[in-house]
Each structure stands twice: as structure tokens, then as C-alpha cells.
Sequence to fold (68 residues):
Amino acid sequence: MTATKPWYMSRTVWASLITVLTGTAGLLGVPVGALDNAALTETVLETVTAISGLFALFGRLSATAKIG
Fold:
């Protein structure tokens, strides 16, 4: 495996974060029994992908120098 990607594009990182957050919420007394961790992870990943795409588009449109 030689290809790299940013940490926020890793499903494993997001699944781990969701697991930690739901575990912490359960310890704090928040009812989390009805949450589907897989669906929540997928939703978070899609949200992060959309936001990073918007940042990339905005960055390119507001750039003052050429690429390359």
C-alpha cells in the first residue's frame, strides 16, 4: 500500500471516532441504543466528503495563481 490519503477520508478513522463518541455519550447517560453506527459513519463520511469538496472548489475559484 503506497497510496496515501488524508486522515479525514479514512472510514476506519470515522468509524473509530463514532464508536468513541457513542461510547462516551452512553457513559454520560445519553440514550444511544437506537443508533446504527454503520449508517452514522457513512453519513459522517459523506458529509466530510461534501465539505472538503466545497473547500476545494472555493479554494480554486479564489486562487490567484495558476496550477502547474
The chain is about 60% helix and 0% strand. The chain has a mean pLDDT of 79. Residues 37-61 form the longest helix (25 residues).
